[in-house]
Amino acid sequence: MMARITASVFTSHVPAIGAAMDLGKTREPYWQPLFAGYEPGRAWLRERRPDVVFLIYNDHANAFSLDLIPTFAIGTAARYEIADEGWGPRPVPAVQGHPELAAHIAQSVIQEDFDLTLVNRMSVDHGLTVPLSLMCGQPPADDFRWPFAVIPFAVNVVQYPVPSGRRCFALGQAIRRAVESFGQDLDVQVWGTGGMSHQLQGPRAGLINRAWDNAFLDRLIADPAGLAQVPHVEYVREAGSEGIELVMWLIARAAMADVAGGAAPRVAQRFYHVPASNTAVGHLILEET
Length: 289
Fold this sequence. Notes:
The chain is α/β, with parallel strands linked by helices. It has nine helices and ten strands. It has one domain (4-287): Protocatechuate 4,5-dioxygenase, Chain B.
């Protein structure tokens, strides 16, 4: 008996998407095509609900500030409150953690020489809550729990130096080994969030590169090890300054069986949409076979 990874889920975490859900705007003409694109993913998740989601995201100066910037931080708490990002916390439930599995992953991965920061208390912002809302729907905050436990895994992709794609890919492989060595029968999904192409400031603010984004999705499916070799400068040049968030998708992709010599995953969902605010949105589900 052991835990097992059954799927990886990839999605953007645009804050305006959360605001559209919170304010009841999902059926407005601007937003409706985007939310319609997530309906297949929601239906898939209802049929394949995991016990735990290992959710890779980046904090946006809420749990961490420029005073303290961990490269990789794993949440080991039993509960995570919703961050106030300047206009009040999103009206969604607090996130329930899985301290036992989180502690085991930390022990295993650190013993493989990855330096993780252990976080026993933190709030979680839109980087984590928007993916949950997109995949689970918009629940009332006062009488609902998310349908699975969540282990938050924060990656610094805000303040340089940020981790390389190679490092993220190797980390994802170590996370798979850690999950598979946990002696409890758990269905675990690994979610990679952030991206796709976007830039929030400077002369190129609003940059979106459809061709590069879709080529990234192609390679993420068929050539993840090759994709992990892409240097930071290409992300910034082709996908904008915030496009570097896509290295977080490499962690989730590397946790799949085919990277360790197993069968290739099945593409259960692929969706791409422009624009959402000033951002390209990508969504992909890969299912173990």
